[in-house]
C-alpha cells in the first residue's frame, strides 16, 4: 500500500505545519498519512509529540517497518544525516522528499505516491485549500481547568486581542537565539498602537514565557490581562486561548502563528513581525496575504 509519511519533530507549531502539509497531500492523492515520531525518542526540547494529546483529529503513527519500506537503504539515521544535506539530493531515492528551501516549493505536488516527507513546510500554501479539514483536525480537546474556563468567558465577552511575547529558548538557548532572535520592544509597541487606532475598545490578553520582562518593559494603555498559568504540558492552552481572541499580535513563532491561523473571526487583524529570523531567509510565503507585517 502506498503511504505518505511525514516526519514530525520540534515544538507544537512545527508539528502542526508538518502534519498539515502531509494531510493536504494525502487528501489530494486519496492516500493515508502516517506520522514518523521516532525522532522524539531522544528529543529533549519542548513537550515531545503533542498532536494526538491535544487535538481531536486522527493522527496515525508510522511503524518502523513502514518507514523502512518507504526509505529502503536510506532508512539508517546515519545515512540520512548525510544524504539530507544540501547538495546531496542526487544520492536520495525519490521517495525521500527533503524540503529544499524555506519558501513554498511547488515540487511537493509531484512527489512519488509512496514517500517520506522531511521538512518544516511553513506556508499555508501547502494546505490552505483544505483549511476546513485542518481546522477540524486541530480542534482542541475539552479543557478541565476552571481558571482557563474563566479566561475563555472573558475573551468571549470583550474585543479580545492576543499578544504573544516569545522569549524563553529564543533568548537562553544559544543555537536558537542565533537563528531566531527575539522581536523588539518597538515591534510590540507599534503593533499595539496599530490596534489601538483601528479597533474599538480593545482588551489585550498577553501571553509570554517571560512575563516579568513583559510587565517591566511593555506598557499597554488599554485594559489588559496577563495570562501566566499554562506551563509545561499545559503550554498548548495558550495557543487555544489565542485562537479564541478576535485579533492577534504574534511573535516570530510558529506557536502564535497557529494561534492566529485558528482564529475563526472573518474580520480579524493579525500583525506579524517583518523579521522572522536573525539572518536573511526568504519568508515570502510564511505570512498569509490577509495578515499585516510590521
Write structural notes for this entry.
The protein is α/β, with parallel strands linked by helices. It has twelve helices and ten strands. It has two domains: 3-137, Rossmann fold; 146-293, Rossmann fold. The strands form two sheets. Strands 7-6-5-8-9-10 form a six-stranded parallel sheet, sandwiched between helices. The protein has a four-stranded parallel sheet with strand order 2-1-4-3, sandwiched between helices. Helix 10 links the parallel strand 6 (202-208) and strand 7. Helix 1 crosses helix 12 (254-261) and helix 11 (236-244) packs parallel to helix 12 (254-261). It starts with a strand and ends with a strand. The model has no long low-confidence stretch (mean pLDDT 92).
Corresponding CATH architecture of the largest domain: 3-Layer(aba) Sandwich
Low-confidence stretches: none
Structural class: alpha/beta
Q: Report the count of strand segments.
A: 10
Average pLDDT across residues?
92
Strand order within the widest beta sheet: 7-6-5-8-9-10
For the largest beta-sheet, the strand count, sense and barrel status come to: 6 strands, parallel
Strand/helix succession: EHEHHHEEHHEHHHEHEHEHEE
Give the overall shape, derived from the CA principal axes.
Answer: elongated
Strand content: 5-15%
State the distance separating the first and last CA atoms: 47 Å
> Rg, please?
20 Å
- CATH third-tier fold name of the largest domain: Rossmann fold
Total domains, how many? 2
Helix content: 25-40%
The total of helices stands at 12
CATH class of the largest domain: Alpha Beta
Amino acid at each position: 500500500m502506498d503511504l505518505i509519511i511525514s516526519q514530525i519533530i520540534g515544538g507544537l507549531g512545527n508539528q502542526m505545519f508538518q502534519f498539515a502539509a502531509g494531510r493536504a497531500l494525502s487528501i489530494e492523492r486519496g492516500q493515508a498519512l502516517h506520522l514518523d515520531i521516532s525522532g522524539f525518542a531522544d528529543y529533549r526540547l519542548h513537550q515531545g509529540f503533542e498532536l494526538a494529546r491535544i487535538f481531536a483529529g486522527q493522527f496515525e503513527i508510522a511503524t518502523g517497518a513502514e518507514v523502512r519500506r518507504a526509505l529502503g537503504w536510506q532508512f539508517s539515521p546515519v545515512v540520512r544525516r548525510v544524504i539530507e544535506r544540501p547538495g546531496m539530493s542526487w544520492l536520495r531515492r525519490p521517495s525521500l522528499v527533503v524540503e529544499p528551501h524555506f519558501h513554498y516549493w511547488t515540487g511537493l505536488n509531484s512527489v512519488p505516491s509512496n514517500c517520506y516527507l522531511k521538512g518544516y513546510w511553513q506556508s499555508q500554501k501547502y494546505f490552505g485549500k483544505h483549511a476546513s479539514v485542518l481546522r477540524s483536525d486541530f480542534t482542541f480537546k475539552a479543557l478541565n481547568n476552571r481558571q482557563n474556563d474563566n479566561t475563555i468567558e472573558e475573551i468571549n465577552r470583550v474585543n479580545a486581542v492576543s499578544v504573544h511575547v516569545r522569549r524563553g529558548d529564543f533568548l537562553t538557548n544559544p543555537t536558537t537565539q542565533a537563528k531566531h532572535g527575539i522581536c523588539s520592544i518597538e515591534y510590540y509597541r507599534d503593533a499595539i498602537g496599530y490596534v489601538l487606532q483601528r479597533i474599538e475598545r480593545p482588551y489585550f490578553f498577553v501571553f509570554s514565557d517571560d512575563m516579568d520582562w513583559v510587565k517591566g518593559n511593555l506598557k499597554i494603555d488599554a485594559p489588559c490581562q496577563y495570562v501566566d498559568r499554562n506551563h509545561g504540558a499545559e503550554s498548548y492552552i495558550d495557543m487555544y486561548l489565542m485562537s479564541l481572541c478576535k485579533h492577534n499580535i504574534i511573535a516570530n513563532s510558529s506557536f502564535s502563528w497557529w494561534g492566529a491561523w485558528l482564529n475563526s473571526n472573518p474580520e480579524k487583524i493579525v500583525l506579524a513581525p517583518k523579521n522572522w529570523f536573525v539572518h536573511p531567509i526568504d519568508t515570502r510565503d510564511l505570512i498569509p496575504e490577509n495578515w499585516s507585517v510590521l
